[in-house]
Amino acid sequence: ALVDRGADVMARSGVYGLLVLMNASLPLAYTAPAGVKPLVMTGDLVQMAPRRLFETLRFVLEMCVPGALRPGGDGWALTARVRLIHASVRDRLSRSPEWRAADWGVPINQFDMLGTNLAFSASFMQGMRRLGFSYAEDESRAVMELWRVSGHWIGVTPELLVRTEGEGRRAAAAIMVCQEMPDDDSRALVESLLRVPFVPWATQTNRVMSTVYAALSRALIGNVYADALGYPHTPVAPILAGYRVAASASDWRRRSLPAGERIAVELGRASWRTALGVGLGGRPAEFRIPGRGGAVRSKRFLRGRSVPPRVAQAKAGRRTG
């Protein structure tokens, strides 16, 4: 099935995929000042950045398992859980006197959800291409179909979801044009990213790696948004060149070896799960659902596994439950 193929294509990205998620997909998702307000107002994402971000990785990982998005699958159950969380946060913030609807629209609206969906699909592949990886047309369509189905289950209006990488890039560009530039909340979230060890062999992010991450982000998202998000000015060319050499060699081996594709997928999933285990410290991934007077943690379910996690019209938002 096309969705299952997309899951394998995503998973084979391995450590390089983790780097693109952290240094391109998430920063791009944080560029929307209105979109990050629910993250800041309902939780401790800045203070608990490493754990919360590895829970996001758990969400992506669960999407990228063949069969996971079929009704009853783990990924399907996860998206239902996230949809419930969104509905709870949306209701809570809509009634909060601190929520400025005239400025920010409906909390977690269609505009925001579509932007996040595209950050994990079209923008992710664009970042991987910039590192030196290649995607055949059928592979690109498979990844887009994977996230189209995920977006459908999570509550994005079907008419807004796209089927091709080109459509995804155009939709992402339209969203960026329509939103305000990043604010202090966006910059605080990005600063927290630079402290997260997103590779399996690192237990902490030191100053050198933070500099490398900042340079890689600048190379992947461009100077305009890197400046707006507060990334330091660091030498980009040598760092990007080094990653491109290593990534291109890895992609060449995948395409050249008889079992290269299967090996890449298996090693990719293994590296993601290793990074997840290190990042979560062996504890199950959780989401917090805002409740009266605070938040409650999600319960583990589903066979004992833990579950983490056109444009102007979309910005106005539609309630989904």
Compact description:
This protein is mostly helical and 321 residues long.
Write a concise keyword list for the protein shown above.
321 residues; two-stranded antiparallel sheet; 16 helices
Give me the secondary-structure topology.
Layout: H1 2-11, H2 14-29, H3 33-42, H4 49-63, H5 74-94, H6 101-104, H7 110-119, H8 122-131, H9 137-154, H10 165-178, H11 184-193, H12 207-221, H13 223-228, H14 237-256, H15 260-280, E1 288-291, E2 294-297, H16 311-316
Helix pairs in contact: 1-9, 1-15, 2-7, 2-8, 2-11, 2-12, 4-15, 5-9, 7-9, 7-10, 14-15
Walk me through the structure:
The chain has 321 residues and is an all-alpha fold. It has one domain (2-314). The protein contains 16 helices and 2 strands. A two-stranded antiparallel sheet has the order 1-2. A hairpin with a 2-residue loop joins strand 1 (288-291) and strand 2 (294-297). Helix 2 packs antiparallel against helix 11.
Assembly annotation = single chain
Helix content: 55-70%
Count of DSSP strands: 2
Task: Note the overall shape.
Answer: globular
By secondary-structure content and strand pairing, the structural class works out as mainly alpha
Major sheet: size, sense and barrel closure?
Answer: 2 strands, antiparallel
Q: In order across it, which strands form the biggest sheet? A: 1-2
